[in-house]
């Protein structure tokens, strides 16, 4: 190893790892070493620049807590989270999109037709649609887990100190025998990702904003099907074409229309909506 | 941006950064995005694998303190620190090697010929050599800053709680009018890099050890010359050919010989050495 130079060191480093030949761990490790060593050579990275990278990661680590994962945020604003979502979307299924930092296990079960808004101010929308497989067969008993911001762009979990209940604006619904789901809620507003830390410094250094367009979060599951984690956005709304975390896909944009013919849908609703947003989810079979 | 897919997202992310065209920041940022997005695509990285990477970085951040920079350690064991040293070594100059985590500003000034060991047990070695420019001209007044482990492989700074002085086994010497330096000290022993954290988990996952061969650390400076940060290793000693952080270069390995003809060197020494280690440093001019 005393003979290594800048062109042979990459193989030397790989060889020190006694990984199972051809294993996934080996592939991922070797690929990362190849790409990042090439990067370092191609750009003739200096000591100061490299320490800048390492200290940036250090700072990301120092601001992180169990409630704030700055490395997920970094992955989001650099498009990695979106790229991983795109790569892992199954053919024919609804496209995946960011999980985001506000998901909570064990959101409350709600009845179809109930209202999620807990009387919050804002536009009351009916959100409804069907959950099917890729051959358009309805999936009765599919489960839809949703969470969202309010009409000020805030998640209740962010304002627990102001007395908000972190389980507000969340709910788990079971689709009916036709695979339908329906509930009313408040139309959410855009908000910024946290920009008071190292990732915010990076955004400012590149003259980038921190805004996300308004959206609803979903995890949809059904027995024997691949679960999907995704988001639904709203046509013509602010930041729809420049989401700070690259979550928007054309197929995930829903129309919001005035609630004219809601009665004809035949839903039993707890609250009368001002507007309607329809969106169908498609799940692909496992394996 | 709603039309992005896994092949167009990389350019879309680059375009959101309004960086100065052709600036170093833009080059480094775009290069990193190109390489790491390619990596993600080539290996079809899954959500679980990507979260594994992000959580590994999170863990590195959580164990880091002002005294422990786990990201530097990660850079070391993956060969990045060595690669950056190699890339930035100036033609004709002594090769660079790891700074390591134990450097201290303001180590005590010592007289040539003094002993660094503070009466520690072990083999007493005379370390001596010349500091020249790349044309072999001596550099009188060059300054050599050294620090090292003891004969148990421990740096005094690691045992401050056991009453050790963190400035022990360190010294700053000024070369004489012939560019010579000379001092006695204790022959250091191999030691392990910290492996009780996430980087240790990575090493174990790849069946790698955490040992470094014994070495002396140096920063050498002279007016008008590029300073070098490097290490000197000892021929035939343990781990010399499998340093956990890839610091060894053939040109940085010195011989350790019995101290037979020390008197002929004409040095005034505070202590009589058992062995001699000779090493010359070469500095390249600035710019």
TrEMBL record, chains A, B:
One GO term (biological process): catechol-containing compound metabolic process
Instruction: Name the InterPro entries for this protein.
Output: Catechol_dOase_N, Intradiol_dOase_C, Intradiol_dOase_core, Intradiol_RC_Dioxygenase
Provide any one GO MF term from the record. ferric iron binding
Q: Which domain of life is it from?
A: Bacteria
What keywords appear on the UniProt entry? Dioxygenase, Iron, Metal-binding, Oxidoreductase
| Intradiol ring-cleavage dioxygenases domain: residues covered | 100-283
**Which Pfam families does UniProt cross-reference here?**
Dioxygenase_C, Dioxygenase_N
Cofactor dependence: Fe(3+)
Q: What SUPFAM superfamilies does the record point to?
A: Aromatic compound dioxygenase (SSF49482)
User: Where in the sequence is the signal peptide annotated?
Assistant: none
Which residue ranges does the record assign to the Catechol dioxygenase N-terminal domain?
24-90
**Gene3D superfamilies xrefs:** Aromatic compound dioxygenase
* Homology family: Belongs to the intradiol ring-cleavage dioxygenase family.
Specify the protein name.
Intradiol ring-cleavage dioxygenase
**Source organism:** Sagittula salina
